[in-house]
Design brief:
heterodimer, A: 124 residues, mainly alpha, 3-stranded antiparallel beta sheet, 5 helices, 3 strands, elongated, B: 222 residues, alpha/beta, Rossmann fold, 7-stranded mixed beta sheet, 6 helices, 8 strands, binds guanosine-5'-triphosphate, binds magnesium ion
Chain lengths: 124, 222
Amino acid sequence: MRTYTLTRGRTKPRHLLGLETVLDAGTGRPGPGQVAECEEILALCREHRRSVTELAGRLRRPVTAVKILVSDLLDADALVVSVTDAYTASDADADERPTTHLLAALSVGLKRKWPDAVGYPKAG
Amino acid sequence: MPSATPRPDDSTVALRSPSRPQAGAPTVLKIVIAGGFGAGKTTAVGAVSEITPLSTEEYLTEAGADVDSLAGIEAKQTTTVAFDFGRLSLPDAPVPLELFLFGTPGQDRFVDLWYDLSRGAVGAVVLVDTRRLESSFTPVSFFEDIGLPFVVAINQFDGAHRYHPEQVRTALELPTSAPVVTCDARDPNHVAGVLLTLVGHAVKSASAGPARPAATTTLQDA
Ligand SMILES: Nc1nc2c(ncn2[C@@H]2O[C@H](COP(=O)(O)OP(=O)(O)OP(=O)(O)O)[C@@H](O)[C@H]2O)c(=O)[nH]1
Ligand SMILES: [Mg+2]
């Protein structure tokens, strides 16, 4: 099926969604007449929260097309955006970088997962 | 000019979806893994990802050209760009974290995607295959220009001449602050070590003062 048909001719998502925006299943039901891909998206998100990029990869559809379908599902409350973006937690006026606090946590998390991994310069 | 994503390019799309905080939901961090053709990007993502790397497609839009219709795109057979996605959870971190890895090729035509991927990212790893050093120039100058912390990881391919990291630094005209390490992209410990190096470098860059703002770059017209 062509993307044009999948999105019923729409070319722009109605919600601002990033590549790493994470979606959780919501309580609503999608409206009638949704394409099968919407059910696929819902099934995936019920299993595990998923990023826009992961959904597009699993559906083998371009990101833009998936964002359009995800927007429909958000409007129906069938999906909700998970608040997970690291930089939204930091000062809005600051650089959109993760805080040093989060970076330190990432470092510890990586070391715990791979105790044999060595970063450079070697840290004690 | 390519702007940071998402683009409010239409007055009807201007609202971010209402979001609902999920108790205990891990915070997402992302890292970009860039490199030339065959440099080992997919291998590196797969070495540490909890899922088999997914290949995801997005339409390639010409910088500055507005896209009116997907039908139009398809009719013109404008190409798509494909990039890798992998993820891993770090439940044992002091705060629960999930790390997203985006693997992306090093050509100019990916620059638009790099803006999107770089926004809010921890930093980038530029994988270097010393047999094709020149393919690392574009991503290196991109990340340098936008002020995203990056490390260069030299993939030691069998049979390739082994360069000293300092030779690669000189050849790529890297700033002295940028770490250059060697790795085997197939080895999870190596890849995790490269990520640790990047995180350490990102911490240093952050305490050295705010990164330069996403400046207009010379790459846009490349
Ligand atoms: N010896 C060695 N081989 C590697 C290494 N990393 C990747 N390879 C091999 O190199 C080949 C290319 O690796 P990929 O991970 O597919 O590279 P890529 O950058 O994703 O390639 P493209 O997506 O085609 O640009 C594969 O056969 C890998 O097994 C490495 O560190 N050492
Ligand atoms: Mg690949």
